[in-house]
Amino acid sequence: MEKKTVIRPMKAADIDTVVSIEQAAYRAPWSEILIRDCVTVGLQCWVLEIEQQIMAYGIMAFHQGECHLLNLCVDPKQRRQHYASHLLDFLLHLTCKSEIPSMFLEVRPSNTAAMNLYKKKGFIETGIVEDYYREGVEPEDALVLRVTL
Ligand SMILES: CC(C)(COP(=O)(O)OP(=O)(O)OC[C@H]1O[C@@H](n2cnc3c(N)ncnc32)[C@H](O)[C@@H]1OP(=O)(O)O)[C@@H](O)C(=O)NCCC(=O)NCCS
What we know:
This protein has one domain: 3-Layer(aba) Sandwich (Aminopeptidase), CATH 3.40.630.30. Helix content is 30%, strand content 38%. The protein has 4 helices and 7 strands. It has a 7-stranded mixed sheet with strand order 1-2-3-4-5-7-6. The structure holds coenzyme A. Coenzyme A binds next to strand 4, helix 3, strand 5 and helix 4.
């Protein structure tokens, strides 16, 4: 029998799991406080779970008629199973339903997995933010990608 995928709002009780995925996934992970704040202030924070296990999460902000995808992350042990693709489809649909005409995000050009994913979903490059990522030895630019809904 196929396992049931559920996408639901992130709750305070999910934060420990989300933080551990975040720490496993990123060189410069968001802090627990930052993730908790995202939930508390009412950003769009969603988790994708299978049999009550969180596989992926996404955080976006709706602000002044714009949608900014701030984080999209899949548990490193659970990649290449289209969880990001599924969650991103959901977030795009939610944005569209909220009558927001586009979504934008920043991404490292060297992040091949994310670049391929976003390009598949129709995102196109609309700008560069110089030295956006500063945690490494050398700062790295971010590409700004946008999709029209
Ligand atoms: C980017 C990320 C979210 C993709 O998650 P995922 O669930 O493994 O991706 P999916 O299985 O949904 O893949 C969808 C498409 O993305 C592309 N893709 C995903 N992982 C890839 C990889 N390692 N190499 C190349 N392309 C990849 C492929 O085009 C894939 O489609 P396909 O499987 O039909 O070929 C995941 O690698 C991740 O969490 N990375 C760390 C956090 C991060 O960098 N987030 C993005 C910040 S902007």
